[in-house]
Design goal:
328 residues; 2 domains; Rossmann fold; 5-stranded parallel β-sheet; alpha/beta; 13 helices; 11 strands
Amino acid sequence: MFNTKKLFARAKAKNKSIVFPEAGFSDRVLQAVKYLKKKNICKPILIGDESNLVIRDKSLVNFTIMNPKTSPLKNKISKHIFSRLKDSGTTFEEAEKLATDPYYFATVLVDMDIADGMVCGAETSTANTIRPALKIIKPAKKDGLVSSSVLLFGKNKFLKGKDLLLADCGVIINPSSEQLSIIASQTADTAKLLEIDTPKLAFLSFSTHGSAKSDDVDKVRKAYELFSKPGVVCDGELQFDAAMRPEVAMIKAPKSLIKGDANILIFPDLNSGNICYKAMQSVGSLQAIGPILQGLKKPVNDVSRGCTVEEIVIISAITVLQVKEKKQ
């Protein structure tokens, strides 16, 4: 099962700063950042009104707190936003207004290397998390894809301690075959980052190896054919049970290389991915971490609005691991 102690130790060793735009109005985020600072997992930067936060919790006097409305960086932040958005028609006055928004302010801190990464989503939708990141930080590759995966782990009789990564569960609504292949590659990279053993990746469908015919099945099969990544065992198209249950795989897909033991599940669309991960979390006694954003230049990560304090802590540590060391 996923080793959070090892994750925290790896994050602690990197000594990175993570900004939390919801610190000013989220009790869960405040509890999480206090734990993160106490255990030295990261250096939290809180966005909010300094006075209100310290009155609310005197222990926060020792934290770095930045108020977008009074920060000496306000004009610099406004200019940065304007430089990023002027080609899309944003005026400087509109950029100044966006600079007071905690999500945009925090995103710019990451883009300007004042913070190493950002975590939010406890109080807003994934769309509101991703929108500033896509506009300001942008994808790592020109015209590149930004997708997401969700880490699932916990005590579950069926999984027997196996960790799972599910994608895409938060960003791309109806990916093409080419996009599915990219999502799979990005998720395999996330699996490597999280040190998930022996990645076995399944492209999911309502068909197993041609048992059904449709354009939707063809899309998944083509994605599987396009996918190629050294060290990753892969198969598709597969139904969920053929991907996850060895006894079913022996019947439905006897030649499958993953033999019903997949730990990376690639869904054909956002509907199926999002529904499945929330169902597994809700009735399968599994902890869900994410969506973990993949493909951005710099790390910004999301949590579900139903997240726990522990889940905020875990994704903050994952965000630290995503920070790329600057070349000397």
